[in-house]
Amino acid sequence: MLLTYDPIQPPSSQEGHGERRLHFYDRGEEIPLVSEGVWQVYRGIAQLSQLTPQGDDILLGWAQPSTFFGLWLTYIETYQAKALSEVYLKWYPLTEIETSPQLAQQVLSKVVQRMRQTEALLAIAGLKRVEDRLQQLLSLLKQEMGEPIEEGTRLKVRLTHQNLASAIGTTRVTITRLLGEFQRQGWLIIDSDRHICFKD
Asked: What's the predicted TM-score (pTM) here?
């Protein structure tokens, strides 16, 4: 499988139907989106969001390995995707999806998973207390991108306090305070690589 590093140019509409290239995006880079096809995550995690007129991000979810995402799968005009870690992606033109029942079924299965994730985020957004929203968000993150370690569960990606604040509509200062409280309560720690870990 070929590997390309080209974070500026979107994939060619002719790509596919053969040896599929891997496109690499580094942590924090924006992933180009075009309407002629969709991305599938091969490795890493991408954050999906909506950009508001004020320049703020509204979290829509995360794309993990095997997940499909792209403009074809949304009505949102200011839809964007950013790499939360080093991300490797495969590109699928719409023409290939439309002519392959097996691939179309695979896309549908992953879209259903993303729909469940989005519903969970909507439920979190409806909670009144910031502390409750953060606890439920951390629980969802643990479920979605946690990996087992000796002490409990560790998130695969490093999330900043601003990432968490944007996800639940609060400030970075509030997140810092609440994470400190959770650490004092003993059920959450931050490891040496700044990853959030949950104790069993």
From this structure: 0.83
